[in-house]
Specification:
This protein is of the alpha/beta class. It contains 13 helices and 16 strands. Strand 13 and strand 14 form a beta hairpin. It is globular. The termini are far apart. The structure holds zinc ion. The site of zinc ion has 5 residues, from loops.
């Protein structure tokens, strides 16, 4: 055989292997995000042929990642179709979240089933890297104690209220924790005693990812998610893909300068958006202690319901600045949906009119007409669920790797 023929054949072989892997990825993504689907639905969603779907599903079933089962007939004539369902116990991730007021850990199975979840309050003063890493390791040990020791863990995802370099999980700054330059990925690997891949990202970026895959923004292609607590974070989905910036530092909408005569911000600048719309701004204007947290915000909302002028005025201030900042973002990104998470989801009914009025005044009419502003649906767990999604991404990207016969890949300490 002449050399060029060998070359041609191996090219064709490589191409068909690339196509097979891409098709496997398409199928596992649909099943992971939409839940159980019939083969016909998979044909319609992926554009693959019926026989290709049958053969690729066979690979998932043989590897234990999926099962096929007869669907129950619901009064329709004809044979019941077979439903393909991912097996949540066949690939499991650990999700962690470091928020300002709490720490959380969860185990999530393939397909998005939350197998176990624990969230604990964290006093705001208790925020050294050592303390938090140790507390997270304790949470994980607690979770693992309830789970099968040979569980096929495939990765760890971490959401943190900070600015993160995606490539190596390096936290450049987390102003609300007082952190700078923390190699969180490496610190967690050591504390958890694991060689599993650990992916770290900003909490609002992951909240956006979770709302996009499983919450208020399902089916939308261009989404702006903003989340308020002490700080204000944002996550953008552009053309169906998360926008991260060159290193992962993108989406820091809370630090858009909006008021040159404004307050000093924790990031070192002055007049950032979060100094006008964050929890501190709301509480201070309503006459409550600015570090008071969620319970004080709830108190402000109760006062607003009874008509307290100070509470209503504070909410009006936040609503005005929310609309002001959103108008700029809407003009730049032309999203179809704005999802309000955290504090902003809770105060939405109180600030809706003022905020929408500012949008009417300031956003370009063409973009303004398109957008809906809605509260998030996944609540406080959105960033944690997004961390699980982040940890699943390598499998969704190239599931072929997980179809090979494998030894148990769990190595997280069980005690
Ligand atoms: Zn700032």
């Amino acid at each position: 055989m002449r050399p060029f023929e060998i070359g041609q054949r191996s090219d064709i072989g490589q191409r068909s292997e690339t196509v097979r892997r891409a098709n496997l990825s398409m199928i596992v993504r649909e099943l992971h995000i939409r839940g159980p689907l019939s083969r016909s639905e998979l044909v319609a969603l992926t554009g693959l042929t019926r026989s290709a779907i049958r053969s690729l599903i066979g690979e998932f079933v043989d590897a234990g990642l999926a099962t096929e089962e007869r669907a129950v007939l619901q009064g329709t004539p004809g044979r019941p179709s077979t439903l393909v369902r991912l097996n949540p116990d066949s690939a499991v991730v650990v999700a962690l979240e470091i928020a300002v007021d709490s720490l959380a850990a969860a185990e999530v199975g393939l397909g998005g089933e939350v197998l176990d979840l624990v969230r604990v309050d964290r006093p705001r003063g208790h925020s050294s890297v050592d303390e938090i890493v140790r507390d997270l390791a304790d949470l994980v040990a607690g979770l693992r104690a309830h789970r099968p020791p040979d569980e096929p863990l495939i990765g760890v995802g971490v959401a943190i209220v900070g600015v993160v370099r995606r490539s190596d999980g390096f936290v450049s700054m987390a102003p609300n924790l007082g952190w700078r330059d923390v190699p969180l990925d490496a610190r967690l690997a050591a504390a958890l005693g694991t060689t599993l891949p650990i992916a770290v990202a900003n909490d609002a970026d992951l909240g956006a990812l979770a709302e996009f895959r499983r919450g208020a923004a399902m089916g939308a292609g261009d989404v702006l998610f903003i989340q308020g607590e002490v700080g204000v974070g944002g996550g953008l989905i552009v053309g169906g893909k998360p926008l991260t910036g060159a290193a992962g530092y993108g989406g820091e909408v809370g630090h858009i300068p909006v008021n040159q005569n404004g307050e000093a911000c924790r990031c070192g600048s002055v007049g950032c958006w979060e100094t006008e719309v964050g929890e501190g701004a709301l509480l201070l204007r309503a006459g409550h202690p600015p570090g008071g947290g969620r319970s004080e915000v709830a108190a402000v909302l109760r006062e607003a319901e009874t008509g307290s002028p100070a509470a209503l005025c504070a909410l009006d201030h936040v609503g005005h600045w929310l609309g002001f900042g959103l108008a700029g973002l809407v003009n730049v990104f032309n999203p179809e949906l704005v999802v309000l998470g955290g504090l902003f989801g809770r105060i939405h009914p109180f600030v809706k009119r003022t905020m929408e009025g500012e949008l009417d005044r300031r956003a370009l009419p063409a973009s303004r007409r398109m957008i809906h502003v809605v509260p998030a649906t996944l609540g406080v767990d959105a960033p944690l669920l997004g961390a699980a999604e982040l940890a699943f991404d390598p499998l969704l990207e190239d599931p072929a790797i997980w179809l090979r016969p494998r030894a148990a890949f769990a190595d997280l300490a069980t005690a």
